[in-house]
Amino acid sequence: MIKVESLTKIYSNGKGIRDVSFEVQEGEVFGFLGPNGAGKTTTLRHLMGFINPSSGKASINGLDCRKDAAQIQKKLGYVPGEIAFYENMTGAQFLTFIDELRGRKDHTRRAQLMTRFELESDRKIRKMSKGMKQKVGLIAAFMNDPAVIILDEPTSGLDPLMQKRFVELITLERSRGKTILMSSHMLDEIDQTCERAGIIREGEIVAVEKIHILKEGLLQSFVVTLASEADMAIIQSSGLDYTPKGPLIVEIFVKQNYHDMLRTLADCKVIHMVSPPQTLEQIFMGFYGKEHSL
Ligand SMILES: Nc1ncnc2c1ncn2[C@@H]1O[C@H](COP(=O)(O)OP(=O)(O)OP(=O)(O)O)[C@@H](O)[C@H]1O
């Protein structure tokens, strides 16, 4: 359905993407993960046909993303990373304008999406926060009910409740057989919505895998507060991978060997223990070792 083949774009400053290849199957929700500046937007803009590649190609449903850009853009739902609107329109006026451009008469879906995202549709766009504009962008992309949707960091600016509503929307659209490609720098979000993901780092794809396989490589950390120096000594002689974080605090890194950590901690008095949310960084560290962070 979506096919990216050896796509390369080198900007005049030498930055860009190199030899990027991946495929998204029909009906699949595919995550495109990478830190800021990794090349996500550049790749997605090629899919929209906005830029010429230095080499390689991209296609959607057999159509060439550059040559057949107009045809692709008409059918696709797209939320860009930086959304530019007609600032003097209200949210409702903008959405009506888009519907008119597309010749769409049935506004039921638009109304449902406005309710889902609790859009204050009478507010002028120039007076909207980043999160409010993001909601308008999401509604505009989904209201046409497109079969293929490309989302560039779709939840940036959204508060946790709206992020949850977004995840629910993707789950619903997935069950309706939509093909979705979404970029993110947050593992959690991709974990909740996608079956597979590609990871991009410094312009190059480093992995394309099912999410559960990516997570198997995850280096999970636990920050543990111990009661005494004697407990610290147990950790020090345990063979566990850890970093001291304070006089009686350690961060223990685990890669599937949870039982080793639990056995060691069973001999200690643990005052407090927390596992910070899993990050993209931890996947990289799991794959390449702690010295190769992002
Ligand atoms: N028009 C441009 N001219 C020159 N360099 C560019 C241009 N657009 C992007 N870059 C550079 O190409 C690299 C990839 O940028 P890109 O915006 O695709 O990354 P990204 O993964 O989407 O990151 P972000 O989440 O920060 O937008 C970065 O080093 C960026 O500075």
Automatic annotation (TrEMBL):
InterPro entries for this protein: AAA+_ATPase, ABC_transporter-like_ATP-bd, ABC_transporter-like_CS, ABC_Transporter_VariousFunc, P-loop_NTPase
Keyword presence, Nucleotide-binding: yes
Domain of life: Bacteria
Any one GO molecular-function label of the UniProt entry: ATP binding
Record SMART domains: AAA
Residue ranges of every copy of the ABC transporter domain listed in the record: 2-227
Family matches, as Pfam families: ABC_tran
UniProt cross-references to SUPFAM superfamilies, sorted A to Z: P-loop containing nucleoside triphosphate hydrolases
Keywords: ATP-binding, Nucleotide-binding, Transport
PANTHER family linked: ABC TRANSPORTER ATP-BINDING PROTEIN ALBC-RELATED
Protein name: ABC transporter ATP-binding protein
